[in-house]
Specification:
The chain has a domain of about 180 residues: Aminopeptidase, CATH 3.40.630.40. The protein contains ten helices and eight strands. By secondary structure, the protein is of the alpha/beta class. A six-stranded mixed sheet has the order 4-1-5-8-6-7. Strands 2-3 form a two-stranded antiparallel ribbon. The longest helix has 30 residues. It binds zinc ion (ZN). The site of zinc ion has 5 residues, from loops.
């Protein structure tokens, strides 16, 4: 104990001596003429952001340069009522609305495809109906606006397509322009010849096949118990009177890709592929398919269609199918 105290006392004395010496020396040091401080050169590393690191040449995303039209079917009427598309009511409450389910599918698929570089257009972005002719006019406007040069006849067509597009109020399936009766097969007749102007549009659209496609999204209904995904495409034998230059092989290729990848991602069976001249497939000539993702009339399918995890899974199925169609690695 005592030895320790002595050690501490010695240390204290030593420290005091050092301190005294420093105080003596200090004024001497200060007697030297003050040296102009070196100018502070700002250094790169002092900036709050790190200096840019050279980025390696970025690889393009799988769907860069590709355009996908997603068409969620149906929608509410102008009064907000669900007039079109399948609805299921239980105890007076809506438990299923096709228009809303397919919109949720389309919105999620849009995000997924855009994240992989695609440009995605929706034919409707809210719960209200977009007139079916309006949807087709949107496709034709795209084709015309991306055609150079646009000569007089095609320019006039663009004006009319714009009028059709604008002629549908939100939630309406009726046009105010009436022009759709000129350009489309309406009212539908299997024996109707195609208008030369419509044929010119269809021929024009064939040129976009390697970078543009169209997918219509629906859910199915049946009085009998059916289950699973059906995919439809238009061929050149179903309606030979109207048009016989649909891109049948490409339509089939897209339908088969969707038929493979959607049932792979969501737990619904692959029901079948069929040819049909549905309006959404017949009234344009971009590679196209219409998907009925399961049967909302079947409670087992409906549980999957309304599962919160399904839009993500379906979006992945669509993404894989689009990659397969364009022959790019996902
Ligand atoms: Zn439908």
């Amino acid at each position: 104990m005592c030895a320790m105290k002595l050690k501490v006392a010695r240390l204290f004395t030593l420290s005091l001596l050092v301190l005294l010496c420093s105080t003596v020396v200090l004024p001497v040091t200060l007697a030297y003429p003050a040296v102009e401080p070196k100018p502070v050169v700002p250094q790169q590393s002092a900036t709050p952001f790190p200096s840019p690191v050279p980025v390696p040449t970025s690889t393009p995303l799988p769907l860069s340069g590709k355009v996908v039209f997603l068409d969620p079917g149906h929608g509410r009427d102008a009064n907000g009522k669900y007039k079109w598309g399948g609805c299921i009511t239980e105890d007076g409450a809506l438990v299923y609305v096709e228009a809303d389910i397919v919109l949720s599918f389309a919105l999620r698929a849009k995000q997924k495809l855009e994240a992989q570089g695609a440009t995605v257009y929706l034919t409707r972005e809210d719960s209200y109906m977009a007139g079916n002719y309006r949807r087709m006019a949107q496709l034709h406007i795209f084709a015309l606006e991306n055609t150079f040069p646009l000569d007089g006849e095609l320019r006039a067509l663009l004006t009319d397509m714009q009028a059709i597009y604008d002629g549908f109020a939100s939630g309406e399936n009726k046009s105010s322009s009436g022009l759709e009766k000129i350009y489309f097969n309406t009212p539908y007749r299997k024996t109707r010849n195609i208008r030369p102007a419509t044929k010119a549009l269809f021929d024009l659209e064939a040129a976009f096949a390697d970078r543009v496609l169209f997918i219509s999204l629906h859910t199915n209904a049946s009085a009998a118990v059916h289950s699973g995904t059906m995919v439809y495409y238009v061929d050149n034998k179903t309606n030979t009177k109207y048009y016989t230059n649909y891109q049948e092989a490409r339509n089939k290729k897209l339908a088969e890709a969707l038929f493979k990848y959607i049932p792979q991602e969501i737990s619904l069976p692959a029901q079948g592929i069929a040819r049909n001249d549905y309006f959404m497939l017949r009234e344009h000539n971009f590679p196209a398919a219409l998907v009925e993702v399961g049967y909302h009339s079947n409670p087992t399918d409906r549980a999957i269609l309304t599962d919160p995890a399904t839009p993500d899974k379906l979006a992945r199925g669509i993404y894989l199918a689009v990659c397969a169609y364009f022959e790019v690695a996902p």
